[in-house]
Write a sequence for this structure.
DNA sequence: ATGCATGAGAA
DNA sequence: TCTCATGCATA
């Protein structure tokens, strides 16, 4: 119960340390209590509004999210910790707490994941080093050179930029 | 844990 | 059309 509820100030300038501290403490507690990332994600939905996948909780712990996204999620995560701790204090068993009733969300139709081979990745990365936002003509060029679909190349650059911004 | 993908909303 | 939050699929 240590410093989990301290008031780390998350504002411009030095949010890197605070959010790292919180995320690390959260992960430690989650593991100590024996919850999986998916458990927490589902719990957030059942109790505080919107639920999340294992992916998002993983990224929260790993700080692989934007600053604003971290700030937005943090309150729910804090609340989850508080609730778990008070439940434990009032004698509820961990096993009982872990019981999840995840409601299966509707499947979005997804296009199959393209897996880029090593040469293609290298080529894309080196291109990115030179130009982070190629225009249509330039992307069409890359598309031909690497024998990929235009959409795959377009999305690749979007994701690559997003990664850079985190 | 992370790569490729979706979709709503900003520009 | 791009960004942003988010996740299924995969390594």
């Amino acid at each position: 119960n240590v410093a989990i509820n301290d008031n780390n100030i998350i504002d411009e300038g030095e949010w890197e340390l605070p959010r790292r501290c919180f995320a690390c403490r959260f992960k430690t507690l989650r593991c100590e209590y024996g919850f999986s990332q998916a458990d927490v994600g589902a719990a957030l939905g059942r109790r505080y509004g919107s639920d999340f996948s294992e992916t998002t909780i993983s990224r929260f712990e790993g700080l692989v999210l934007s600053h604003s996204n971290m700030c937005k999620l943090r309150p729910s995560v804090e609340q989850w910790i508080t609730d778990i701790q008070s439940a434990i204090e009032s004698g509820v068993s961990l096993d009982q707490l872990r019981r999840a009733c995840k409601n299966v969300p509707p499947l979005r139709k997804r296009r199959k994941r393209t897996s880029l081979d090593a040469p293609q990745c290298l080529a894309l990365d080196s291109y990115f080093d030179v130009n982070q936002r190629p225009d249509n003509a330039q992307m069409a060029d890359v598309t031909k050179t690497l024998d990929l679909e235009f959409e795959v190349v377009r999305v690749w650059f979007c994701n690559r930029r997003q990664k850079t911004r985190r």
About this structure: Residues 52-56, 59, 65-66, 68-69, 72, 105, 107-108, 110, 112-113, 115, 133, 154, 158, 161-162, 165 of chain A lie near DNA strand C (CB under 10 Å from a C1'). Helices of chain A lie at 16-33, 37-48, 54-62, 67-89, 94-98, 118-130, 136-146, 150-165.
